[in-house]
Amino acid sequence: MKKYFYVFTIQYLGYRFHGWQKQPNVKTLHLMVDRTLNFILEGKRFKSLSSGRTDAMVSAENAAFELFLFEPIEDENAFLELFNHNLPQDIRATSIQEVDAEFNIIKHSKIKEYLYLFTCGEKCHPFCAPIMTTILDDLDIDIMKQGAKLFEGKHYFKSYCYKPTDNGIYDREILLCELVENTIYTANYFPKKTYLLRVKGKGFMRNQIRLMMGTLIDLGKGKLSIEDIKNSLLPGSNTRMEYIAPASGLILNNIQFE
Fold first, then answer.
1. What residue numbers does the annotated binding site for substrate cover?
2. Residues 32-65 pLDDT 10s
3. Sequence-distant (≥ 6) Cβ neighbours of residue 237 within 8 angstroms
4. CB distance 182 to 249 below 8 Å
5. Residues 143, 220 contacting (CB under 8 angstroms)
6. What is the pTM of this model?
């Protein structure tokens, strides 16, 4: 039987979901996507597969999943409109594209860009909570900017993997890592100054970016030094970075298939 393959890009606010992957007795993004697809496909056979998992409370500007069907979609625009009409309001599909059988959304080489949105020094309006982390302490933003650049390039990232094993692959490359003032997200209840950590690379380990962000927060508080970060990235380093930054500040900003 002939199969048909489609790649969807989607956006979602992850705050009320327990991540992407289906799990027993909890609400996940994959569950809601598949439930909606099952409804609009009227019970026809299908399978959906994501390009990667996001953790609980992590959001996305541009995530992707592949849909496998046994009948073609006759009108892609109409299907996209119907899909969005039935998805919950915190999930939106932005595009659909037919691909060939050779395309594998998991194995196909891709570059991911993440943003981490945060502020510091004051208690924020509760409406900030779904996408922004608030650090009540004052932070030295200038030294955090210096620290962020240390992650760029090829390094040994075992210190930035949650529960690493002895046989993991920890030599990895970060194509871009910078901490900048936020000019992307605005709201009248946001504090005057907010910041973004922008990280781009081909593959990330479990909680890697949140551990990197947590390390920069500890750097900004004076709990760690620039030398501590340099040493943590040396080959064979067994330094353990303890602080995993909260998930709700993390946003998958873009996936670029090569």
1. 114
2. 999 999 999 998 999 999 988 888 999 999 999 9
3. 156, 158, 159, 231
4. no
5. yes
6. 0.94
Joined together, the tokens standing for residue 101 give: 């059988």
Can you tell me which residue has the tokens 């208690």? 123
Q: Which of 34, 55, 142, 166 is catalytic?
A: 55
Length of the chain: 258
Q: pLDDT value at position 110?
A: 87
* Beta-carbon count within 10 A of 148 CB: 24
- What CA–CA distance (Å, rounded) separates 179 from 144? 7
d(Cα 15, Cα 240) in Å, to the nearest integer?
28
**Reported confidence tier of residue 1, pLDDT bands at 50, 70, 90:** confident
Nearest CA to 33 out of 82, 104, 86, 78 is that of 86
Helix (H) or strand (E) segment spanning residue 252? strand 250-257
Two structure tokens written together for 220: 């900004």
* 228 in catalytic set: no
